[in-house]
Amino acid sequence: MSYQSSGLSTPEDVITAYQRIDYFLKREVMGGASKRIYSTSHIYEIATDVGFAALAEALAKLISEGRLERLIRVEPHLGEGIADFQSLDDIPNQIENWRRPGEIVQVLPEHLRVYYRLKK
Amino acid sequence: MSLIQDIQALKAEISGLPEVERLGYFKCWIKGYPDQSKKEEILTLWDIVNQYGLVDYPNQARQIVILLHGIRTEATWQSLIAQELRGLPNIEVFPIGYGWFDAVRFWSPKFLGLRKFPEQKITREIRNIRSDHQGGDIVVVAHSFSTYLIGQILAEHTDIRIRKLILCGSIIPTEYRWDRVKTGKDGIAIVNDVGTRDLWPVMARIGSWGYGPSGTFGFKTSQIRDRYFNYSHSDFFSPDHVRKYWIPFIVDGRIVDSKWDVDRASSSAVLGFLAHVPFVKIVIPLVAIGAWLLARFLLSLI
């Protein structure tokens, strides 16, 4: 079984993913995109064909280096974020959906989407 | 077990809990994960597992995905889909082509043999891939003219074993003998993604021999699942479509329903008429015979 098919990552894959994301981020900084946020799938498209485990490791490294910060967005309906949180502990069990007045959302783990943005 | 497998197991566990308990369980699971150095990665992988819907992949056979394009194209969609699929575990992808296939050869009657070259090329490619990658399931994604080719290959090369087949923009005749191809549990699982705004299958049906409008109307046979979309001929090639509809089928054979299956209106009567009138078999020969008789009559007057 290969590393990728076992859900593991090779050090080479992590380095490749890191370098590709790093290059992308540098270009974004040069373009003045400090406020932009990126979804996991967006960054996965940038890292390309390295495997999910390697992508997750590379992103964790960029966060630990202070290059990126992660935010957790509650999206009860596809593409409709209703609140952002810095940490999992901050997320309450219920949130009022400001997009649909009167709707109280029971937050489920399936509603959580992870986004990344450049750290100032 | 790797982290991603742990997360897939977590997803399965959580789905069995009452909704009010899920978030709390999720938080506790992350806090209690034995390797806390992986904490940052867990949320990223959770997001990925949620988006890509992979739950059972550790037990899945390897999938060897072959992408086949249509005519008059360099098929940039193959790269896009290959990129989507290559990040998934247990999947290898092979975009296959047969060069620039012009419209003249496409429209030429089958008996002239001008369509044979791409069929032979793809047959060789599938055999080579099969031989080099034993032990995996072959999955074919075919678009437009390639659907015709794969239909021919399955009919003529019965030793070629394909496990799953995705057709889109199909021009295979609706009367194709799928009963001669082993489908179902031990045979090929087939999904035909139909674009209800796709005119090309009807045009192909009108203009030449051997083609049909299955990409516009579906096959309507028990052996194939027709799935309808409000699409034209090449609208299938978006990351969203691939992620939502093709990846679940490729990975674990799940067929995700399309809302358009239910919402679509009846097909246009004109399109239905054009799709079923045997132009090249009857109308064009009749017109040709009429023209010949008229010419003879006119010549006899001179």
Structure description:
Chain A is an alpha+beta fold and 120 residues long. Chain A has helices at 11-30, 40-47, 52-64, and strands spanning 37-39, 68-74, 83-85, 94-97, 103-106, 112-118. The longest helix of chain A is centred in the first third of the chain and has 20 residues, at 11-30. Chain A is elongated and about 50 Å long. By secondary structure, chain B is α/β, with parallel strands linked by helices. Chain B has 2 domains: 3-52, no CATH class; 60-267, Alpha/Beta hydrolase fold, catalytic domain (Rossmann fold), CATH 3.40.50. The termini of chain B are far apart. Residues 55-59 of chain B have low confidence and may be disordered.
Percent of residues of chain B in helical segments? 40-55%
Q: What's the story with the biggest beta sheet of chain B?
A: 6 strands, parallel
Q: Give me the number of helical elements of chain B.
A: 13
* Count of individual beta strands of chain B: 6
Blueprint of the fold:
The complex is a heterodimer of chains A (120) and B (302).
Chain A: H1 11-30, E1 37-39, H2 40-47, H3 52-64, E2 68-74, E3 83-85, E4 94-97, E5 103-106, E6 112-118
Antiparallel strand pairs in A: 1-6, 2-3, 2-6, 4-5
Chain B: H1 3-15, H2 19-31, H3 39-52, E1 63-68, H4 76-86, E2 91-96, H5 103-107, H6 116-132, E3 137-143, H7 145-156, E4 164-168, E5 189-195, H8 200-207, H9 214-217, E6 225-229, H10 239-252, H11 260-263, H12 269-276, H13 279-301
Parallel strand pairs in B: 1-2, 1-3, 3-4, 4-5, 5-6
Helix pairs in contact in B: 1-3, 4-10, 6-7, 8-12
